[in-house]
DNA sequence: CAGCCGTGGAA
DNA sequence: TTTCCAAGGCT
């Protein structure tokens, strides 16, 4: 472990690099501008949870154009926000985003809390996001620890305890190098470094502004830090999805229950997803299965969804809650990726069917 | 507290 | 092709 004297040098080296090389990102105030808008900082941090910058940018642009303030977002319809989030994943974030916006708009007159503790009480705001918003939007000294910080700090100090047991040591080390001022810039500088130079697989140590501060660069394999515990194998599951199409060009869509996988999202009616799911259709009809199931990989299991198609009469009413959605606007339904792919597969096959 | 919760890009 | 990974939070 490093001694006190070097910790200040690390922040100075990194901030000096950041002042010249900071990435220009839509949620960052331009250099020399006033402090960033807390609404935009918070929105970006939530979107960036376990999500890459490249994936977030178009969603951030869309959200801030459509809902430019926390009050505007708080007044939005749930269905519109969920549909706008479709494709970004981890949909509990979108549900918590709305709950948080409404809490801030309705109970706090639109003002975000300006301390870590206050922010931490908001839905969808955990230890990381509270620290990041406190530091970036409000200039607080906060110790911001995300996956980038874990990697950079584990390398700087050559911490060889496997994750997640290394977390306390990593946090203490991160605390030791976090400066009293510019903690927000410092946090973003570490994340820029982690994203562009101190990357997970092939760190560019030769151009790293911290190479003279780093313990791992002196080892045979700097990329070996942080050490991680072995991960589990991903189980495979099967499922059935039901495409019910009306002759006037509508398909029957349902909304999934608020909790659990793809919670709150529009979807095709479908079975549970397990080793041997119930193949019983939701209604009697002439069912025909697509030749190839839709394969999709979630974080903790992979899925093969067999899509069954039925063409029903105009006055047909499937059981349960749902809505007839126009095929011409299927792209606006806000389907999560699994069901968007299922819809693509059905439309592609029916197009081929029409032109043999 | 370990498991649950998406997605797409990189290697 | 498969594996790994990303500005985590909730229960």
Automatic annotation (TrEMBL):
PANTHER family tied to this protein: ADENINE DNA GLYCOSYLASE
Which protein, by its recorded name, is this? Adenine DNA glycosylase
What is this protein's function? Adenine glycosylase active on G-A mispairs. MutY also corrects error-prone DNA synthesis past GO lesions which are due to the oxidatively damaged form of guanine: 7,8-dihydro-8-oxoguanine (8-oxo-dGTP).
Domain of life (superkingdom)? Bacteria
Which Gene Ontology molecular-function terms are recorded? 4 iron, 4 sulfur cluster binding; 8-oxo-7,8-dihydroguanine DNA N-glycosylase activity; adenine/guanine mispair binding; metal ion binding; oxidized purine DNA binding; purine-specific mismatch base pair DNA N-glycosylase activity
- What InterPro entries does this protein's entry cite? DNA_glycosylase (IPR011257), Endonuclease-III-like_CS2 (IPR004036), Endonuclease3_FeS-loop_motif (IPR003651), HhH-GPD_domain (IPR003265), HhH_base_excis_C (IPR023170), HhH_motif (IPR000445), MIG/MutY (IPR044298), MutY_C (IPR029119)
| EC assignment | 3.2.2.31
Q: What species is this protein from?
A: Sphingobium herbicidovorans (strain ATCC 700291 / DSM 11019 / CCUG 56400 / KCTC 2939 / LMG 18315 / NBRC 16415 / MH)
């Amino acid at each position: 472990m490093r001694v006190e004297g070097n910790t200040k040098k690390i922040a100075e080296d990194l901030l000096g690099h950041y002042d010249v090389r900071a990435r220009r990102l839509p949620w960052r105030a331009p250099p020399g501008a006033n402090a960033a808008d807390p609404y935009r900082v918070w929105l970006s941090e939530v979107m960036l949870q376990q999500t890459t910058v490249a994936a977030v940018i178009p969603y951030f642009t869309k959200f801030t154009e459509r809902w430019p303030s926390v009050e505007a977002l708080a007044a939005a319809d749930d269905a519109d926000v969920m549909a706008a989030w479709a494709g970004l994943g981890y949909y509990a974030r979108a549900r918590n985003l709305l709950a948080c916006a409404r809490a801030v708009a309705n109970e706090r007159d639109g003002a975000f809390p300006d301390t870590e503790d206050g922010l931490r009480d908001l839905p969808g705001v955990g230890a990381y996001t509270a620290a990041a918003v406190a530091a970036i939007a409000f200039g607080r000294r906060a110790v911001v620890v995300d996956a980038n910080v874990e990697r950079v700090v584990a390398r700087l100090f050559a911490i060889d305890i496997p994750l997640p047991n290394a977390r306390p040591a990593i946090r203490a080390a991160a605390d030791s190098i976090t400066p009293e001022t510019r903690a927000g810039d410092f946090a973003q500088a570490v994340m820029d470094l982690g994203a562009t130079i101190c990357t997970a697989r092939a760190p560019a140590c030769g151009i790293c502004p911290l190479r003279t501060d780093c313990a791992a660069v002196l080892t045979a394999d700097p990329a070996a830090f942080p050490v991680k515990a072995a991960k589990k194998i991903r189980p495979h599951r099967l499922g059935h999805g039901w495409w019910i199409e009306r002759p006037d060009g509508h398909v029957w869509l349902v909304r999934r229950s608020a909790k659990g996988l793809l919670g709150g999202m529009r979807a095709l009616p479908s079975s549970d997803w397990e080793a041997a799911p119930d193949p019983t259709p939701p209604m009697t009809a002439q069912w025909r299965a697509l030749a190839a199931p839709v394969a999709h990989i979630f974080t903790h299991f992979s899925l093969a969804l067999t899509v069954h198609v039925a063409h029903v009469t105009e006055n047909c009413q499937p059981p349960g809650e749902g809505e007839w959605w126009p095929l011409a606007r299927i792209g606006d339904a806000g389907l999560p990726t699994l069901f968007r792919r299922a819809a693509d597969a059905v439309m592609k096959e029916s197009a081929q069917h029409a032109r043999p």
